[in-house]
What we know:
- By secondary structure, the chain is of the alpha+beta class.
- Among the domains are: 3-38, no CATH class; 240-489, Rossmann fold (3-Layer(aba) Sandwich).
- It has 14 helices and 26 strands.
- Strand 10 and strand 11 (194-200) form a beta hairpin.
- The longest helix is centred in the middle third of the chain and has 19 residues, at 253-271.
- Residues 494-525 have low confidence and may be disordered.
Amino acid sequence: MCLVETGTKNKETGEISMVPKLVPACQTPAKDGTVVVTNSPKVKANQNFVQEGILLDHPVDCPICDQAGECWLQDYYFEFGHQERRADIHPFTSKRRELGPHVSLFADRCVMCSRCVRFTREVSGEGELMVIDRGSHAEIDVFPGFPIENKMSGNVNDICPVGALCSTDFLYEQRVWFLEAQNSVCTKCSTGCATQMHVNHNQLYRIQPRFNPNANDWWMCDAGRYENQFVTAPERLDGVMIRRNNAWEPLDWPHAIREVYNHVADVALNHGGSHLAVVLSPFLSCEEAYLLASYAVSILSDVTLVVGKIPVVGQDEKFKAGFTIRAEKCPNRRGVEEIVKHFGKQPLDWDGMLAKIATGEIKGAYVTGGYGDPWIDDAEAAKFERLESLVVQDILPSPLARRAKLVLPGVTAFEKDGSYVNHAGLIQSASWGLRPHGGAHVDGQTFSDLLGRRGIYNAADVLKELAVKVPFFARCAEGVPPAGLNLVTGQEKHPLTTELGTVTHPTPTFRSEASRMLEVESSTR
């Protein structure tokens, strides 16, 4: 498809002599005087015939193919192919086999581009995939006994251009042209992969990486892609609950805001601000952490601000292409720490707070969670029984929530706007794609109501305020660019930025020319 006409221009006479044969543009070196023609009738005819040749043995099963609507082969057909098929249509069988827990292969659809093989060798470094047989019998397969089950296996589904490799988790779930995309940031570790969530009718169907050279390039791990069941967990907290006479009672939000103040302010006003701990979870966005810290010091300036529990699992896992899965399993530890420092506080960590609870220095606490995985056990939660008052704001029930006097429902990162600072100081913004679960309010709205602010919470406005008040975030005064902004070193340049301008990469989109034509066709019937 990339064959072009080339020639050489004589500097003295200006005469151009062309090479009689077409050559591959991707493998032809350019030099002074080289002439390249990419749109001649000869080139276009070649593209047309190559496209037809590819489709001779390719099954036309677009109506049942998951890749339909975002298939490169469909796009190439609409741009280069014949309008009608000139060859006989042969019956085909969809030979499907599982290559791993998240990867299904439809061998008939494969065009043998070998991108998936290169990925397992050059990026993930595991090398599970190979090409078996030769000539027209060649197929992609795994080495016997070595299924593709590395922690980045889902990326091979993304880079397959024709739907030969499909996500087993998404297979036959939804037609892609019905999905709405929202840019987000993965909260599974401190790498902070730029992602895109695909939603329809308030249901999250899949998560894919967005290209970001400053964070994750084109990739993301399987944990961030597939382990998001907590978003739709039936046990999610969906309303305010208060404990009265050893029984839980529901509470509406106006009364809940008043009860929060009664529980935390009474401790601060009766015992002093230092005896009240306000815990800022590393899963809060920067804007939310700023509002909650502002509320805490508005009660009394010496309220104890605590950086929430930092989940750490194992060690950093580095892959061949430089992608790293961080052991720190939270998205915004650094941002929360900087906000706590701004309010004149040396950040108190989780263990430090537990020690002060044990000695009686802390008598009340407002704890924010947002953890998607179990994060506290009964033994640790039992230490909070010494407190006079405990308010917990979280998305899932926990041993700590069961010991609280007031429980507020929180929301996940998929349900709110906000910004997160990764391990390297890169701040990125995420947009909401799902409505808050049940009767939950966006966390930023809850903190804004506690501060007595009027109107609907707007993360962009809070970020501008944050940039003015906290020097660490000063570079965010004009907002956060799509690729993020490094708050330590300044905005990083795209690796392909040159003096002549910026080389842009077309981000793969799930709304291809094929899907748009299908929509036009259905609307005209």
